[in-house]
Structures are given as structure tokens and as C-alpha cells.
Amino acid sequence: MTEEGGVETTVVVIREYDPKTDRESVEQVESSCEVGPNGELSLYTDLLGDPICRVRNSPLYLMLVAEIVNNNNTNHETKQIVGMIRGCIKTVTCGTKFSRNKSADPPKPLPVYTKLAYILGLRVSPFHRRMGIGLKLVNRIEQWFGDNGAEYSYIATDDANEPSVSLFTGKCGYTKFRNPSVLVHPVFAHRLNVSNRVTIIKLTPSDSESIYRNRFSTTEFFPRDIDSVLNNQLNLGTFLAVPRGYIWDGSGKFLSDPPENWAIMSVWNCKDVFKLEVKGASKLRKGLAKTSRILDRVFPFLRLPSLPKIFSPFGFHMLYGFGGSGPMYTKYAKDLFGFAHNLAKEYKCGVVATEVSSEDPLKLAIPHWKVLSFTDLWCMKRLGEDYSDGSVGDWRKSQPGLSIFVDPREI
Ligand SMILES: CC(C)(COP(=O)(O)OP(=O)(O)OC[C@H]1O[C@@H](n2cnc3c(N)ncnc32)[C@H](O)[C@@H]1OP(=O)(O)O)[C@@H](O)C(=O)NCCC(=O)NCCS
């Protein structure tokens, strides 16, 4: 955007975010931006004073701001931050190949990795939209992705978020790729029951890593640096549900001789990273939510489904790395969910959430409220056409698997 005529110039500068000078302005833009479609109710994020928080746990990340610089004829310069974007890069599984061995054993599936970039937290102030600023931010961050060797870039958005979908698919060359479901459940004032058919064991990060690498490394989007996820202080633990009476003797023994049924899940504490708030609810709706909460707190034995305080900033836990085996696997996963709900209650969270592939049987097994849950749209772009197709070919054209591994660092 340039208005030139010797009198006044206005340019949009895209530059790296500077925490010393930009924090307040960025927070102002963030708090003025709804996330997703602007319906009766809108979701807003509060980044708790750290605008980089949503990417800082990734191995490589960058945050850019868009600043309008105005120079008038008296050589007086004014600057205003009006938009921002975050991006991160990591290595993930994009497919599977089979080991070639000369023994009689069947070939083992092995992960095929790619360097993947992720765009998140793109925001443009409502007063500066449709001026090409969002597009400039995307173009510049993609340049950084390419400079750092990323082969693909993806974004997650709401299918109903027309500005975002048309920006990425219409102007930036992204294609619709996957439609995972975000399953959200309120944290009740009462505890959920966990069946006594299972024992739930908290694993050490190294046992968790062995199980995840051994059983899930061929799952799409599995991060090669899973160890840094599991050792991060936001990871509250990895939990294994096994039949009651099973004796745990380390991951080596477990992997060589697992019980018939088992399930695994990890819990990530998003509450210490950012908060969410639902705005736009009527007084009646807020009143009903408050009443349900009071009743649930006073009469927990009635097990009333109650709505927590989601109309003021609330935190949540993300449940990730759900998986397992056996005919009772989804039931065990549901037990893990109940356990995680009760943990989130201790942490005073508003909701617990998990994200699963559209094909995943867990979609039916994990309790959630339809009114709070939604379908995510992941769009993917191949950043360069000169990469070799390797053994998986073009990832964008591959069929979805039964599961995806959702990295909690990117929520
Ligand atoms: C999505 C968002 C970042 C777009 O920013 P922007 O600066 O207005 O986008 P641009 O001006 O660069 O638009 C580029 C193209 O995107 C598409 N687009 C942008 N806004 C649109 C809208 N409201 N309706 C339809 N298409 C739209 C158009 O194709 C547009 O090109 P055009 O203006 O030549 O038609 C902005 O609307 C926003 O901050 N929304 C709230 C936060 C959000 O939803 N972020 C995305 C999460 S992934």
C-alpha cells in the first residue's frame, strides 16, 4: 500500500517481532481479533503477556509483525502494528516404507520423514483487513520456511472461516488436506468415574518415548523429536491403561509382551500458555451456565453435566498421543479420558480437548460435547516443486490414515 505524490507515504513493513518494543501493540491486535467465524459466539485468545508462547516450544520458530509506517510532509514518522503471524518448522512422518531384509520375517513398516512448516496465529486488525496485509505476512513467512529447508507448509483453520480459507486456498496455493475433529468436553465440578477394570500407570518420559516410537512413529504427523515434547515442562505426563492386575516391568518388557488390551495418552498443560474466552453470549445463556455450575458443585453426587466459566478467560488441557491395541482399546481410552478429566479438574481447567483424525474410531469413544466441538480444516502446500518425491510421492495426494499424531506444541 503506497500513496506517493511527494506529500505523504504509507508503507507496510513486515519485520521480525521484537518482544522489547512490540508486546503491547501485538496484544492489542490479538484481543481485537476473533478466531474463526464471527457468529453469535466468538472465541478469543489471551496470550498471557507472551505473544510468542504458541510457537516457542517448537524446534525452530519465527514471529513476524506487519507495521504501517506513515511519513508525512513534515518528515514526521508514525508506526502502527496491525498484524502478525507465527510459524514453526519440525520434522514429521509423512508416510511409510517397508524395510528390506533378507530374513524370513515380514518387512517392518518404517516412517518416512519430511520437514514440515506450520503457520498459526495469523491476525490482521479488523480496521486494516482486505488491504493485502494477511497475504504479505504469509508470503514472507513462507520465504523463511523455504530458506530453512521446509518441504511442506500447513495451516489449521475452521472450514467456516471464509477469509482464512479463501486467503490460503485461493491466493496462497494451499489445498484442503485433512479434516480432523476437535473434541471438547467441559470440566465438571464432579469427578468422572474410571472403571475398575483398568490400572492407570504414569510412565517416565523415556518409557513413553519407547512406546510412542515403537508403536506410533509411522502415524502421519508424528514428530521426530517426540522426546522433546515428552520432556517439556508443559507435558503433565503420559498414562497407560492396562488390565487390572497387570504388572508393569518397564517399556522393554511391555513392548515384547503387551497385554491383550491397552491404551496410552499424554496430557499437555495449555493453561500455562494461553487462555480462551467465549464472547457474545446472552445474559440468559450465562445465567444458565452459572446455575448448572452451582448445582453441580453443591450436589456432586447427582453428577449433573455443568458448564464451567467459559465466558471469562479459561485454561484447558490438551490430550494427545491417544493410541492402543486390543478389542477393548476404545473402552480403555475412555477410562484414560475420565482420568484426564479429573486431573484437569484439579488444575481448575475450563475444558479438556483432544483432536483425532476424521477416520479414527476414538471419535465415537471419547466423550465430548457437540456444541463445544468442531471440525478442523488442515490445508497443505508444497513449498518447492524440485524436491524428490521419495518413497511416498506427493504427500498432498496421499490417502488419510486411521489416525494422526497431533502435536500439542501447535495448539
Ligand atoms: C484471515 C485474515 C488474516 C485475512 O487478513 P487480510 O489482511 O484481510 O487478508 P488480505 O487482505 O491479504 O486478503 C487476501 C485475500 O484473502 C481473501 N480474503 C481475505 N478476507 C476475505 C473475506 N473477508 N472474505 C473473502 N475472502 C477474503 C481474498 O481472496 C483476498 O484477496 P482480495 O482482497 O484480492 O480478494 C483476517 O481476516 C483475520 O485476521 N481474521 C481473524 C483471525 C483469523 O481468522 N485468522 C486466520 C486463522 S488461520
TrEMBL record:
Designated name of the protein: N-acetyltransferase domain-containing protein
PANTHER family with a match to the protein in the record: ACYL-COA N-ACYLTRANSFERASES (NAT) SUPERFAMILY PROTEIN, N-ACETYLTRANSFERASE HLS1-RELATED
Domain N-acetyltransferase: 12-193
Organism: Tagetes erecta (African marigold)
Pfam families reported for this sequence: Acetyltransf_1
Family, per entry: Belongs to the acetyltransferase family.
InterPro entries documented for this protein: Acyl_CoA_acyltransferase, GNAT_dom, Plant_NAT
Keyword Amino-acid biosynthesis in annotation: no
A GO molecular function held by the record: acyltransferase activity, transferring groups other than amino-acyl groups
Parts of the chain that traverse the membrane: none
Keywords annotated in UniProt: Acyltransferase, Transferase
